[in-house]
Fold this protein.
Amino acid sequence: MSEIEIINAKKIYHDVPVIENLNITIPKGSLFTLLGASGCGKTTLLRMIAGFNSIEGGEFYFDDTKINNMEPSKRNIGMVFQNYAIFPHLTVRDNVAFGLMQKKVPKEELIQQTNKYLELMQIAQYADRKPDKLSGGQQQRVTLACALAVNPSVLLMDEPLSNLEAKLRLDMRQAIREIQHEVGITTVYVTHDQEEAMAISDQIAVMKDGVIQQIGRPK
């Protein structure tokens, strides 16, 4: 896990600043939420951390390592999006194992890690099913298992529950909180839902127009 430090971050689209002199420190092992309305810059900031958007100003660090010009594949991050980023033609087990195979992890370790996260995410009973045989909540559990199985230093989550119905959202909130605590991974979570942010976060940063309005702990 890594501490994330962002100093004077800046991002401009079509001559319009969308991130403006933004400063935050995200403690190692915490679940830190970026909360704000659509268009406030929270997903842009997440993509800057991931390396998917260029950094036009400021400095980004994982611990003492500056990541501004580091390729996304070198940043050792896991990502979970609102759309389930899993392969429809692979079984649940093979989806969870895929990232480990790409990293050429030894077979015994691959099997061990895959089984660990199938169990942790409570999807071991679906290991041989294809994603289209699962509910939305189960598919999102697979996505999270895929992200965690490769042992990332940082987990980035962009509105991961927005496509789920209300009951499943509540269940997944609790699951994400419990698993994040158990794994202890530094997590940056993006949402527009204040209730969701209050339920799962160690700290919340409220964003508006590319600026952090306030940072605090949920009460």
User: Anything to note?
Assistant: The longest helix spans residues 166-183. The chain has two domains: 1-76+152-219, 86-151. Residues 86-151 form one domain.
